C-alpha cells in the first residue's frame, strides 16, 4: 500500500498545481462517498480533485471466476493499479 501511495504522490506532483490526488480506502462505494464528503467538508480536499478509491475485499468475497460488482455511472471508472505509474 505504501508503494501505491508513493506512486500517487508522484502523480500528484505531475498534476495541475491547483488539483491534488486524494486516496480513499474502503469496502463499499458508500464508504468512499462518505470519506470524500468528509474530506471536502473539512477543507482537506476540493470537489475538483482527483479521487482514487481503493476497494478492499476479503478472501471469501473473491472467487477466481467472478469479480466484485461495483456500482457504476458515467462519472466513475476503474483504473488498473499498474496504470497509475504511467500517467
Describe this structure in words.
With 87 residues, this protein is an alpha+beta fold. Helix content is 30%, strand content 14%. The protein has one domain. The chain has a two-stranded parallel sheet. Helix 2 links the parallel strand 1 and strand 2.
Number of distinct beta strands: 2
Which range best describes the helical content: under 10%, 10-25%, 25-40%, 40-55%, 55-70% or over 70%? Answer: 25-40%
* Morphology call: flat
- C-alpha Rg (nearest Å): 14 Å
Look at the helices and sheets and give the structural class. Answer: alpha+beta
- The topology string of helices and strands comes to HEHE
Distance between the termini: 18 Å
Beta-strand share of residues: 5-15%
The figure for the number of domains is 1
Strand order of the largest sheet: 1-2
**What does the largest sheet look like?**
2 strands, parallel
Q: Spans with pLDDT under 50 lasting ≥5 residues? A: 72-81, 83-87
Number of helices: 2
Mean pLDDT across every amino acid position: 71
Write the topology of this structure:
Elements lengths: L1 H13 L6 E6 L2 H13 L8 E6 L32
Parallel strand pairs: 1-2
Label this structure with key terms.
87 residues; alpha+beta; two-stranded parallel ribbon; 14% strand
Amino acid at each position: 500500500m505504501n508503494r501505491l501511495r508513493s506512486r500517487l504522490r508522484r502523480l500528484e506532483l505531475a498534476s495541475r498545481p491547483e488539483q491534488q490526488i486524494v486516496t480513499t480506502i474502503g469496502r463499499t462505494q458508500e464508504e468512499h462517498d462518505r470519506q470524500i464528503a468528509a474530506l471536502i467538508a473539512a477543507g482537506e480536499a476540493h470537489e475538483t480533485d482527483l479521487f482514487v478509491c481503493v476497494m478492499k475485499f476479503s478472501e471469501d468475497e473473491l472467487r477466481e471466476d467472478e469479480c466484485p460488482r461495483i456500482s457504476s455511472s458515467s462519472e466513475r471508472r476503474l483504473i488498473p493499479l499498474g496504470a497509475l505509474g504511467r500517467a
